Prior knowledge:
By secondary structure, the protein is of the alpha/beta class. Helix content is 38%, strand content 15%. The termini are far apart. The chain has helices at 17-28, 49-56, 76-99, 135-148, 170-180, 227-239, 257-268, 278-287, 293-296, 304-308, 318-325, 327-334, and strands at 8-12, 32-37, 44-45, 61-64, 106-112, 156-162, 164-166, 187-188, 221-222, 224-226, 245-249, 255-256, 276-277.
Amino acid sequence: MDARGAGRVVVAGASGFIGRAVVASFRESGDEVTTIGRGSGADAAWGDTEAIAALVDGADVLVNLAGKSVNCRYTDANRDEILRSRVATTRALRAAVAAASAPPRVWLNASTATIYRHRMDAANSESSGEIGEGFSVDVATSWEAEFFAGELPATRRVALRMAIVLGDGPATRMLVRLARLGLGGPQRDGWWPPHRRYRGIGPRPTGDGRAPRHDTRGRQRFSWVHVDDVVRAVRFLAERSEIAGPVNVVAPAASDNRTLMRTLRRIVGAPFGLPAFRWMLEPAMWALRTEPELVLKSRWVTPERLIDAGFAFAHTDLDEALRTVAGPRDVRRRGRTDVAG
Length: 341
């Protein structure tokens, strides 16, 4: 495969908003793209071992983005499926790559920057980042352990440790809804009855089972990346034969929660945003069927390896990035031309 596009690309998990963007990009450059997924439109379905093997054998690039969205309540059933959907699909693809007579030269597998701990003192890079503990981290470490297991000498493997992706996806929609509901002020941790939704999971659960509490007064860091830059990073990493292992896919400059919510209020035209304490967030997040962890954890990550390799991000300003994914829709909804509010 070259810049003009002449290769075979297999995308697993192509029905999500990141997957759709990746598929469109490769097809626009002339590559032959086939997909693996649950829907009827996929070229191979999960569980069809022979069909998956046939697609993977002879492919140039394999991209796996499969996994149940974490934008849900962490019930026992959802916790189990979040883990299973990542580990089982990665295991199935690894078996197909190992059995292929002409395996892909590169396999890019989704991971998450949530693998790093809540941190306020410094950014987590690939070389100096500190792994956290608890449910979300255990999912990430189990996922990557499955991905990097075994010997695949002909296939370079890259784990895409993505931050929250801004685009027409669940994380952006959830943040916009919070701003519209009047909870667009700084979001602060605090007391709430103990629960065990964030307890560890997998073969070696970590943490003490209790939900962490970090009252950062709305200054928790917010690392993010625009979906366009995710696609560009996938294309970039597919061609950089010297890069393997974990790669942080995240915009260079992290924001913080206060700035994030203030920016969203301007974009959606929310007249006010109440400071949202955990006792306010818990019922709101229950109604939205998601978890407060998504906005209360300090996610401070830096793209050390991408920057060192010369990757140039197209979206580095949070205000601009949010306007490209939230602003136009809100303008049409309100019939206005000024999205600043």
